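Action item from last week, closing it out:
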Amino acid sequence: MKQIVIYIFCFLLYLPTIAQTKTKADELYGKEKYEEAAKLYERILDKEGVAAEVYYNLGNCYYKMDEIPRAVLNYERALLLSPGDGDIRANLVLARSKTIDKSTPPSEMFFVTWWKSLVNSMSMTAWTVIAIISFVLLLVGILMYFFMSSLTLRKTGVYGSIVMLVVVVLANIAAYSQNDLLLNRNTAIVMEAAVSVKSSPSDGSTDLFVIHEGSKVQILDNSMKGWVEVKFEEGKQGWVPKSSVEVI
């Protein structure tokens, strides 16, 4: 117990330092000293943990420095933590427009696209809060049904409980989906100017096609030393050196 108290006390003392570092980085960004600001944002992420705002600001720095792959990478990381943020999504689209490879994602059924849009409209934390609030309202509806004498209020309790039950289920599924995206990161950004995608994990294997920096790929197999099997958004797949991509 004593150790926990000491840890909390030290963390509270450290909070002003975190804020000062971010304030300094923001000031450097405002003065167009993007490289110095980027170093401070990187330090915050390394020492204080991840945050959507810091990834977003770091992405802005790299975009200003014309380091598009790193801009895309950090915008993608920011979007994972805050999928409903319109500014992050807009800047990501802008950064992607400067990449060489223009991919067209495979078509989906309309309800799949709708569900993904719904899940990505909010963060895992927001969905969890909605699930908790909906569960409390569900209990209130049940209590209304059992303890209210008015027929109108009892009906309201029943119908309200049914609606809240649906919301609880959907919110929990959405929160689980968001958490799964954060824990099992299987997408990456190509960091090298041009990478030859191979038919097998070997330098001597056949070149299938070339992908360029800033492209987003899905990691299919990470078990081979020094190589990863990736799938491009258009469906093409093959092997690339592990060092040529960075996991989002």
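Closing note: The two ends are 37 Å apart (CA to CA).
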